[in-house]
Amino acid sequence: MAIGDVVGRVGVDFLKLKLPSLKKDYEIDFVIANGENSAEGNGIVPISANKILNAGVDVITGGNHTFRRREIFPYLNENQRIIRPINYPSESTPGVGMRKFKVRDISVCVINLIGVVYMECVDLPLTAIDKAIEKCNDCAVKIVDFHAEATAEKLALGYYLDGRVSAVFGTHTHVQTSDECVLPKGTGYITDVGMTGPIHSVLGVKKEISIRRMKERIPVRFENADGPCKMECVIFDIDENTGLTRSVQRLRVSD
Ligand SMILES: [Fe+2]
Ligand SMILES: [Fe+2]
Fold first, then answer.
1. Is 216 in a helix, a strand, or coil?
2. Which of 78, 87, 136, 167 could form a disulfide with 128 if both were Cys (CB 3.0 to 4.6 A apart)?
3. Ligand 1 center to residue 241 CA distance, Å?
């Protein structure tokens, strides 16, 4: 199961409320959640990361907001269940971009990658992912969280990796797309899994604040919205023998 960006305290609490029963109902073996916006305000901090893991998530992925809060830097180095985009250019960037797990006796590799269209300049995604895949050839299952803005960049990466990894899911836009599918060579794909957080918000931020920013064009401090929540995710049914996806199911659970 891949869960869209968990936003703020309300998003984390909603995840905790909904995930245990979903895992049971859908017989989920392994859960990945993007947590780059799980701290109140912005970014991710150790408290929000721990809460996500305690809710039943196996590994947290990140994105452009991973490094917003310095409190998370040591955690990124020490905790074995969190990754950040692999294609940051410096060797000294905290954390790692891929980790390997054992799910029963099956080896699963999760890779986090960030796009370059309307984003920071980082190492080219295609070069970085080729290198990463070389390092996880021993894993039966390979899953990629591609944190990117542009739909075309995400789709192109999906086709680039088709047949080479088990699944590619997009994050960052916080808006779920309806294009979940199995690509021709067997890779499960969705352009964006969406968000876990307040429904009536602009990507999790209080809508009044986003509107004010649009109107006045002056930077404002973002605050997370509250109210009824949704959790958006996809479930990849992966054949561990072929390493490819049999089916993809998209879900949205709300209050
Ligand atoms: Fe996000
Ligand atoms: Fe992001």
1. helix
2. 87
3. 33
Q: What is the pLDDT of residues 195-247, one digit of tens each?
A: 999 999 999 999 999 999 999 999 888 899 999 999 999 999 999 999 999 99
Based on the structure, what is the number of domains in the chain? 1
Say if residues 60 and 47 touch (Cβ distance below 8 Å). Answer: no
Ion ligand 1 contact residues with beta carbon within 5 A: 5, 36-37
CA of 65 to the centre of ligand 2 (A): 6
The boundaries of the domain holding residue 152 are 2-254
CATH, residue 215:
3.60.21.10
Three-state SS annotation for 120-154:
CCCCCHHHHHHHHHHCCCCCCEEEEEEECCCHHHH
Ligand 2: centre distance to CA 171 (Å): 7
